[in-house]
Amino acid sequence: MRHLGVHNVTGRASLLAAVLGSGVVQCLPGMPAAWLLWSLAAAAAAVSAGCLAVCRGRWRWYLLAPFWACLLGFVATVARVESRLADQLDAGNVDKVARVVLRVAGLVRIEPGSRRFQAEVLSSMPEGVPSRIEVAWHAPGRAGPYARRFDAPFPDLVPGQLWRMSLNLRRPHGARNPHGFDYEAHMFAQGLRATGSVRGAPRLVGDEPWAGLGVVAERARHAVRQAMLPHVADKRYGAVLLALAIGDQASVPAEDWQVFNRSGITHLVSISGSHVTMIAALGGLLALWCWPRLSWRGRGLAERMPSRVAACMAALLAAWLYCLLAGWGVPARRTFLMLAVAASGHALRIPVNASRLLCLALLAVVALDPWALLSSGFWLSFGAVGVLMAGARWWRPAPGPEPLPARWRRRLGQACLLQLAITAALTPLLGWWFHQVSLVSPLVNAYAIPFIGMAVTPLALLLAMASLVPGLQAAAGALAWLAHGVLLGVMQPTAWLAGLDAASFDVAAPPWWLMAVALAGVALGMLSRGPALRIGAWLLMAPALAWRPERPPQGAWDLFALDVGQGGAVVVRTASHVFLFDTGLRSGPGSDAGARAIVPFLRGQGLRRLDALIVSHADIDHVGGARSVLAAVPVAQSFSSFDLRAHLRREAGLLGTPGVLPPMPRAMSPCRRGMAWQADGVAFDFLWPDAPEDAAPPSAASRQRNARGCVLRLRGVHHSALLTGDIGAAQEARLVRRGLGRMDLVMAPHHGSKGSSSPAFVRAAVPAHVLAQAGAWNRYGHPNPVVQSRWEAAGAYFWRTDAHGALIARSRAAGLRVDGQRLLQRRYWQGR
Questions:
Q1: Which residues touch 744 (CB under 8 Å, ≥6 apart)?
Q2: Closest CA to 562 of 798, 830, 801, 817
Q3: 98, β-bridge pairs
Q4: H/E element holding 557?
Q5: Do residues 752 and 767 both lie within one domain?
Q6: Could you identify which of 22, 47, 90, 200 might form a hypothetical disulfide with 77, taking C-beta atoms 3.0 to 4.6 angstroms apart as the criterion?
C-alpha cells in the first residue's frame, strides 16, 4: 500500500512536471540551439545514470519519472514552437502587397466600417506568406475615430468561402508596455503569423463548406449568429446573449466589460465550464431517461449497452458539440477534457479522484495547445476548478433529519462560502493580470450565478435553436424577450454595484517570488484543516496584494515613455508625486491609448492618482486618451495649451454623449513659459509656449497646435530631461537662443519628424539619450532616418518605442539608465 501511494503521487507529479517543462519554453527569450538540446540530453542521461546507481528498488523510478516527464514536455514544446516559427512572413514581404487565395477560417468579426477574420492561405504571389493570417477588410472612406456607426456595404463573409485578395502584409506587432497586453503573444498563440489589410476589390472564387471540422463548426456559428441577430440586435444586452450562445464576444461594448470586471461576473457572460457542464448534464440525463425506453429490432437498447455508458457518451457528445459551437476556447477545452476523463472512468468503473482528474485535464490541454499557458483564462479556469474540488468537503449532509427551509439555508450558506473562497483564492491571479480585484464579486455572484447560469444561458441556447427552425420565429422572439428581460433585471443592480467607488481596489503587479508565496498560501489555505494554519496560510497573500514598486529617492526621477503607437504619453514619477505628459491616440469611439495602455500601466505600478496632467496640444495623438485617464484616475492639476474642458465637451458630442464629461481636475491652468514648481527635489518648468501676445501666429491650424504645444523641462539632483511635444524647428530655435543648455535626456520633438530636431537644437542639447515615440510602419515615416543619424552623430543613443517598446529611464546617483521593455522581457515570438 505504501508503494501504491507513492506511485499515485509520482503519477501526478509526472503530469505536472510535463506541464512545467512546457511552461519553461514559454519563458525563453529565444529557442535553444541544437547543440544546447544535445547537451541537455547528455546531462539528462548523466543524471539518470547517477540516480540509477545511487537509488535502489522502485524509488529510482519514482524519482526519474517526473524528471523525464519534464524533459519530454520541454522538448515536445520546443519542436512545436520551431514548427510555428518556421511558418512566418518572409522579410522581403513585410509591408508589401501580395496576391493571395485564401479560405475564411473563422467567424467574421463585425466592426463599424470593417470586417476582421482568420484565414487559411492556399496560395500566394510572391511566396513566403504564412499558412494562417488575420485579414482586416476596411470600407473605403470609412469614418474616423469619433464615428459611432458606419454602415458600409460588405459581402456576406462566411467561413469556408474562397477569396482572391490583394493584401498588404505585416508581421504581428503590438505595443509592449509594463503590465500591458501582449498582442504578439496572443497572435502567436492562435497561430496567426501575419496580418493583412485588403487592397483593391477582392473576388469570391468558390466555397468549401466541408473543408474541415473547424470550418464546419465556424460555419454553424455563423448560421446561428445570422439567425439570432434579428431577435437581439435592438436589445441593450443582445450582444451578451450572442456571447452566451456561440461565444461571440466581439460586439459586447467596452463599457459593459468594465462593469463585468468590476463586479466579478466576467466568467458568467463568457462560455465557461459551468455552461459546458450544464449542457453535458442535460444531455446525459436525457439519454439516461430515454435509453431504457428505446429498442431496436425487438431488443432494448439497454440490453445492448448499459444506460450508464450511453448517458456518459451522450453527455460527452453534447458537451463536444457545444464547445465547438462556442469556439473551442481554453475554458471549454478544459471542461470537455475533464468531463471526458470523468465519464470514461465512470463508464469503465475506474475510480478517478479529483486531483488526478485535474492533473490529467491540465496535461491534455497543454499537450493540445502549449500556448494555452499564456492565457489568463487558463490559470483562472483551472484555479477556480481547484478551489471547487478542494471545497467539496464543505458539502456535508446534515447529521439528521432536516426541514426543507433549514436545508435550503444551509446550502445557500455553503454556496456563498464557496463563492467567497473562489474569489479570495483567485485574488492574486486577478491582481497579477488585471491589477484590479472586485470587492462586490461574492455578493453579485450570489444572485447572478443562479439567474444567468440557470435561466439566461438555457434561454439563449433555446433562442439559438428556435431561430434556426422555420416557423418558430415567434417563439424565438418570445425567448429573446424573456432571456433579455431576466438579464436586464440582473444587470441593473450589478451596474449600480460596479459603479460604487468601493466596488474594487487596484493591485500593483508584484514580483514573481511574491506571487509564488501568495499562491502557496492559497494552496495551503484550501487544503489545510486546522483553523490556525488556514488563517496563517491565507495571510501569505497579503505581501503580494500590498506590494508597491520602489519609489525614486529624493531628487531622483523615473520616466516612462509608453508604447502607444503613433502618439505621445510619458509618465514621470518622483519620490511622492506622479505626472503624465500627454495621453496618446484615440483610434475609435471605444478605443484609446488612455484605457488601453496608460491606465493599466498606472494600476500595475500601484499609482492611484496624478498630481498633474499635462496635455501639450490638442492633436488627437496627444489628447486622445484624456477622457479615459480622467475617468479612471483622480487628477489634482492640469496644464494644457488649449481649453481642455471645451475640448472634452466637443468630444462628448462627437461620441454621441453630449454634455457628459469625466471627472475634471481640481485645478486647470494653461501652460506658459516661466511657470515652475518643485516636487521631491525635482524642478519642473515650462519653456514653451510664450504668452499669446509674444507668439508669432503660424499659418495652418494643425501646425498652430504643434507650435503652441507645451514644452516641459525637469531637473533633478543628478540629471535633466526635456519633454518637447510636437514643436518644430522654429520653436527649437527660440529655445536655443534663450539658452536651452545641455540635457541628459530629450524626447525627440514631433516623434522624430524631419521638420524638427534641427542641427542647432541637437548641438545645444547634446543629450546622452533621445527617446522617440512612434508607431510601427506609420505613414509619416517617423522617426526620420536623417534625424536619427543626426542625434546619433552627436553622441546620443537613439531609442524608439516601435523597436524597443516602452522606454524606462531612471535617474540615480549612480547614473542615468534607459531600458526598453522589449529588451527587458524578450520572448521568442517577439518580432517573428
A1: 719, 720, 721, 767, 768, 769, 811, 816
A2: 801
A3: 167
A4: strand 557-561
A5: yes
A6: 22
**C-alpha–C-alpha distance, residues 214 and 222, integer Å:** 12
Q: Which residue, chain included where needed, has cell 516661466?
A: 674
For residues 659 and 770, membership in a common domain is answered with yes
Length of the chain: 832
Answer yes or no: is 621 within a domain: yes
Distance in angstroms (rounded) separating the CA atoms of residues 664 and 633: 10
- How many distinct structural domains can be found in the chain? 4
Is there a cis peptide before residue 662, judged by omega within 30 degrees of 0? no
Type of residue numbered 807:
L
Alpha carbons 807 and 771: distance in angstroms, whole number: 7
Query: Angle 742-748-751 (CA atoms, 0-180°, nearest 5)?
Result: 170
Measured between alpha carbons, how far is 122 from 636 in angstroms, rounded to an integer?
57
Same-domain check for residues 623 and 731: yes
| CA quadruple 268, 270, 271, 273: dihedral sign | negative
Domain that holds residue 527: 512-546
> Does residue 757 form part of some domain?
yes
Tally of CB atoms within 10 A around 233: 12
In three-state secondary structure terms, 328 is coil
Phi, psi at residue 28, to the nearest 5°? Answer: -75, 145
CA 255 to mean position of chain CA atoms: 16
Query: For residue 125, what is the DSSP state?
Result: E
Q: Which residue among 86, 117, 138 closes a domain?
A: 86
Under 8 Å CB-to-CB from 187, ≥6 apart: which residues? 134, 172, 174, 193, 195
What CA–CA distance (Å, rounded) separates 408 from 413?
8
CA 537, 539, 541 angle in degrees (round to 5)? 95
Task: Please give the Cα distance from 786 to 773 (Å, whole number).
Answer: 16
CATH of the domain at 154: 2.40.50
Q: Which pTM value belongs to this model? A: 0.89
- Using alpha carbons, list the distances in angstroms from residue 443 to 114, 266, 274, 449, 493: 39, 14, 19, 10, 11
Check whether residue 34 and residue 140 sit in a common domain.
Answer: no
Query: Are residues 110 and 156 located together in one domain of the fold?
Result: yes
Q: How far apart are the first and last CA of the chain?
A: 52
Q: What averages of pLDDT result for each successive group of 10 residues across the chain (832 residues)?
A: 53 87 91 73 68 59 76 90 93 93 92 88 92 91 63 84 95 92 92 93 92 88 92 90 86 85 81 74 83 77 78 84 79 77 72 77 88 85 77 61 71 70 80 84 83 86 90 91 94 91 85 87 75 74 87 96 95 96 90 92 92 95 95 95 93 87 94 94 94 49 79 96 95 93 95 94 95 93 95 96 96 95 92 80
